[in-house]
Write a structure and sequence with these properties.
By secondary structure, the protein is α/β, with parallel strands linked by helices. The protein is built from 15 helices and 15 strands. It folds into two domains: 124 residues, Aspartate Aminotransferase, domain 1 (Alpha-Beta Complex); 232 residues, 3-Layer(aba) Sandwich (Aspartate Aminotransferase, domain 2).
């Protein structure tokens, strides 16, 4: 008998040999960034819960009340059985928060992006994508079947040249606002100027900027003072917002088109009201509790000041994502495991998530951390180095 799984085992063995096997630790929340992982206490620097809201009492209470009022399921697609009053209110509040006319809620950022891009461009159109964009943007571009132009990371000159050469009827530029593995910010002001000059749209994925950057946490576009009808603003709500989901905001006509055409919205079951109720509470906290952003930025500065004499490159980033570039996969895993043995969890990120030869510790900071937590992290980094 032929073993039908043999080829998969061979491929898994190859991944293991290249130190590319992933695992899923079992975690239990204790308090903020302090967790139990596989039963052992750790101080975690791996979460995108940048403002520490995932355990905020106001979010938990809002979810509890909505669960009693609506139950824990939504039943069907919002275009089949409608969506909850909670979700309807959330969309209006998100649009007002980011100062755009209308917003549409999705169950996750990945679901949003793989649907948005094919609804915006298709055969005969052109899409221009940063070389380091997140996988969901890359997959959305592929699904669109538009002519694809990959420009070097944050290279406005290359993007300018590509736009100038394009004769497509519709042009769409897509980029992360804050890049998830490097923590750097896209040159959005220059990009929107190019889009206005070359009759193109700009879709930004602000997964790692929403709630953290800009006045009142309104995101990277607000942080950079961007206000253009050509901007399509997408952000996720499972990171700084502390719950789950995503939204896209922009011109009301554009959002209506997306609601009618995005397959990953039309054919997906709506999100339970308990989630969107928690998010409504989250938006209020983000807006009102400025001290969370202030603490986060103090912690970023404290960490960067303490890594200057480490043997690894600490990539330039003023955001909550702080990468230490180790290099090889095996070495990055060894550093991660040595830190785990000392009670610190900072994940090793390896290809294909990052380019070959740039395996790294992706250190994520949160307002849930304290200065003492940063000092403990630094002490362990120096010991392991």
């Amino acid at each position: 008998m032929i073993d039908p799984t043999a080829e998969f085992q061979t491929a898994l063995d190859a991944l293991a040999a290249a130190h590319l096997i992933r695992t899923r630790p079992v975690i239990e929340a204790v308090d903020g960034a302090h967790l139990r992982v596989d039963g052992n206490p750790v101080l975690a620097f791996c979460s995108n819960d940048y403002l520490g809201l995932s355990q905020h009492p106001a979010l938990i209470e809002a979810a509890r009340q909505a669960a009693f009022a609506y139950g824990v399921g939504a039943g069907a697609s919002p275009l089949v059985s409608g969506h909850s009053a909670s979700t309807d209110a959330l969309e209006q509040e998100l649009a007002a928060f980011v100062r755009l006319p209308r917003a549409l809620y999705f169950g996750s950022g990945y679901v949003a992006n793989v649907g948005l891009i094919p609804a915006l461009v298709g055969r005969g159109d052109a899409v221009f994508s940063d070389a380091l964009n997140h996988a969901c943007l890359i997959d959305g571009v592929r699904l669109s079947r538009a002519d694809t132009h990959i420009y070097p990371h944050n290279d406005l000159a290359a993007l300018t040249e590509a736009l100038q050469r394009s004769t497509a009827r519709r042009k769409l530029v897509v980029t992360d606002a804050v890049f998830s593995m490097d923590g750097d910010v896209a040159p959005i002001a220059g990009m929107i100027a190019l889009c206005e000059r070359h009759d193109a749209w700009l879709l930004i994925d602000d997964a790692h900027g929403f709630g953290v950057l800009g006045p009142e946490g309104r995101g990277t576009a607000a942080h950079l003072g961007i206000d253009s009808p050509r901007l399509i603003y997408m952000a996720t709500l499972g990171k700084a917002a502390g719950s789950a989901g995503a939204f896209v905001a922009g011109h009301a006509t554009l959002i209506e088109w997306l609601m009618q055409r995005v397959r990953s919205y039309i054919f997906a079951t709506a999100t339970p009201a308990m989630v969107t109720a928690a998010l409504r509470a989250s938006v209020r906290v983000i807006e009102q509790e400025e001290w969370r952003r202030a603490r986060l930025h103090r912690l970023i500065a404290r960490l960067r000041a303490g890594t200057v004499d480490l043997p690894w490159e600490h990539a330039a980033s003023g955001t909550a994502i702080q990468p230490l570039i180790i290099g090889g996969n095996e070495e990055a895993l060894a550093v991660m495991n040595a830190m785990r043995q000392r009670g610190i969890w900072a994940p090793a990120i390896r290809p294909p998530t990052v380019p070959e030869g740039t395996a790294r510790l992706r250190i994520s900071l949160s307002a849930a951390h304290s200065e003492a937590d940063i000092d403990r992290l630094l002490a362990v980094l120096h010991e392991v180095a």
